[in-house]
Each structure stands twice: as C-alpha cells, then as structure tokens.
Design a protein that fits this description.
The protein is 56% helix and 5% strand. By secondary structure, it is mainly alpha-helical. Strands 1-2 form a two-stranded antiparallel sheet. Helix 1 runs parallel beside helix 4, helix 5 packs across helix 6 and helix 6 packs antiparallel against helix 7.
Length: 251
C-alpha cells in the first residue's frame, strides 16, 4: 500500500464516511452524482492512487463532506482559497461578480481553462469550448453559466466581473502550474511558442540586474497585449529567484 499524503487521506476518509452514512449508495451512484469516474473512486477507496487532481477533489468534497468539514479541509489544504471563502461566506458573490466561486473553479479543469479563454478581451464561444475541451468542457461551461460566473452576450462568453483581481501570489503560482499542462509542446521551434530554463550561481548584483530585466520584459509584454488586442488567446509566465535565500538575506 502506498504512503498516503494528508490531503489524500482526508479525501479517502471522507468518501468512506459518506458510504457509512448512506450504505445504500453505491460507488457507481456516487460516480454519477459527482462526475468522478468509477475507476477513480474505486482506486481512492483502495488507496491505489496518491495523486488526485484538484478538480476531482472539489467534486468529491462538495458531495461527501458536510459544510463545516469541507471548510476545515479547504483551510488545511487550500489556504489561499480558504481566505477568499472566509471573506465571502454566504454565496461567495459581491457587486462585481463571483469571488469565492471564481477561486474555486480556478482549481478545477476544464473549468480553469475555459475561464482563461473567457477572461481575454475577445472572450470565447461555445464552439471554441466544444472544439478545445469536448463534451466535458460543455458540461463545465454550463455549470459556470448556471452559477452566474460566466455570462453569454451575442454568443460571446465572458467572466462576470473582474477575475484578475484575485491574482495573489498563491494564485499566480497555481496558474503557472496549470499553464505547464496547457503549453503547446508541438509548437516549440515555431515563431509562436518558447520555453526555457537556466540556473547558475551569480553575484547578488547580477541577480538584481536580471530581476530588473525580467521586470522590463514583463512591462513590454503587458503593453503589447494591451495595445494590440486580437483573437488569439495567449499566455506568458515568468519566474526568477534563488534556490537559497540565505545567500542573499540570511535567516
């Protein structure tokens, strides 16, 4: 049996307790109610998997956990999301749109992918969602439309409110991880995609200059995207830092 992470163990325990509370509910029935595949549920119960997607986790805890247990779980394992949910405890809505709900869907896929498309100035369409994510994406889209997170005007889908204001450090790191999965590897080598990595030991002054250079690049990219809007949804991620902060500032 694999060693279980605390998050996985909490999910597995919650699923087992759900079946104890509702002994007449089968794995197949829970699969249909949550959208989590039967095989995945069985593997979770038998501890045959120790790496569950965030999307799967949220689908399960919404069904199998009581509200207080669900909030406790989110505080323990998704602290950034917990802060937003705590700030908007009722429906997660404010005058500008959905806050807690947007944060929640950003931890799910294909929901997060669709949100990224809908957040661009061009928005997206049902045809694009169908083409890029299939029937699963259409179901996710309907879920977000029903929740009032995504609105449709003249066949264009957009996120209701200002979704960019939630981009704190935790969310940015999470989105960078997501973009690694979305990255079009088949386009590497063309003029439309780049990826790179480097590391070295440098002086403190050199690192400061490189950080400044990356900041200027970021400003240039931002200016270009704001002044040359079009129909091609793109993403740009950047990180630069040190593996050992003690060499810069000590403890």
């Amino acid at each position: 049996m694999r060693e279980m992470s605390p998050k996985f163990e909490a999910v597995q325990t919650a699923v087992k307790r759900y079946f104890e509370r509702f002994p007449r509910v089968s794995i197949k029935a829970l699969s249909m109610r949550t959208g989590v595949p039967y095989a995945t549920l069985r593997r979770i119960l038998q501890a045959e998997v120790n790496d569950i997607k965030d999307e799967t986790i949220f689908k399960l805890i919404d069904r199998v956990m009581l509200r207080e247990d669900r909030m406790s779980f989110i505080r323990d394992h998704y602290p950034a999301l917990a802060k937003v949910v705590a700030e908007y405890p009722e429906q997660g809505l404010d005058d500008d749109g959905s806050v807690a709900m947007l944060k929640k869907f950003r931890y799910m896929d294909p929901h997060n992918f669709i949100i990224k498309l809908a957040l661009t100035s061009a928005g997206t369409t049902r045809d694009d969602v169908q083409r890029l994510t299939g029937e699963r994406g259409i179901l996710a889209l309907e879920e977000m439309v029903d929740a009032g997170l995504i609105i449709e005007e003249r066949e264009i889908l957009r996120v209701h409110g200002n979704g960019f204001r939630l981009m704190d450090l935790d969310d940015i790191q999470h989105q960078i991880q997501k973009d690694l999965h979305y990255f079009p590897r088949s386009m590497v080598g063309t003029e439309y995609a780049r990826i790179g990595h480097m590391s070295e030991s440098v002086t403190k002054e050199a690192l400061a200059r490189m950080v400044a250079m990356s900041g200027e690049l970021l400003k240039s990219i931002e200016q270009t995207k704001d002044t040359e809007t079009g129909t091609i949804p793109f993403f740009f991620d950047i990180m630069i830092g040190t593996y050992d902060r003690h060499t810069l500032i000590g403890d």
